[in-house]
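Lab notebook, bench 4. The sequencing result for the construct came back, and we need a structural model before the next group meeting so we can plan mutations. Quick request posted to the team channel:

Model the 3D structure of this chain.
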Amino acid sequence: MFRKSLTVLACLCVAPMAQANEYQAPLEDLAAAQLRSIASEGFIVDSVREMNAARAAMSQSDIDAKDQEWRAQVGSSSPLIDSVMTTPSSQRLGEIRDVSEGLFTEIFVMGNKGLNVAASDVTSDFWQGDEAKWQQTYMVGPDALHISEVELDESTQTYQAQVSLPVVDPQTSAPIGAITFGVNVEFLQ
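Done. Here's the predicted structure in C-alpha cell form:
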C-alpha cells in the first residue's frame, strides 16, 4: 500500500467532497478483495446471530433509550458500552484494525435492528439504524455496498471514508446485519 502524497492531502483539506469520487474505485476494489471476506468470517456471523436473537423483543422505544444511555456514557465505562466492547468479537475487530497498520481506523458490526454488536473502538452512538451505513446495506441485500464521502475523522485526525456492507448468513444468503470499516484514504493506491 502506498500513501497519497501531501499534495493530495492538501487537496482533500480544501475540497474533500470533490475528492470523494477519486477514491470510489479503490474503495470498491478493497471491499471486493478484502472487506467482504472479513464480513463473512464466522465470529462476525455468529455474533450477529446471537445478538439478533437476544435483542429480538426490543421495541423502537427500547432502542432509543439504549441509544441515549450509550451517548451519555461515551468516554466512560458503562455496562452497556462494556457489553459491546469487551466481547471476543470486539477484541478480534481491534486486532484486524491493528494488523491493517493504519488502513482501518475503526470497524464495527451492527445487527438486524441497527444496534452495535461489536466494535474495534467506541462509536458515538449505539443505534446505527437511522444512518445510511445500515439502511443502504442491511436493508438493500447481500451484494449491497455503501461508501461515504471522504471526511476528516476528528478522533483519528485522518481522512477517511466509511465502507459498509451487509453481514450475510451463509445458510440463507440473506443479510442479518452490517459492518462498517473506517478506511484511511491516504493508504489507498
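The two ends are 6 Å apart (CA to CA).
Will bring this to the meeting.
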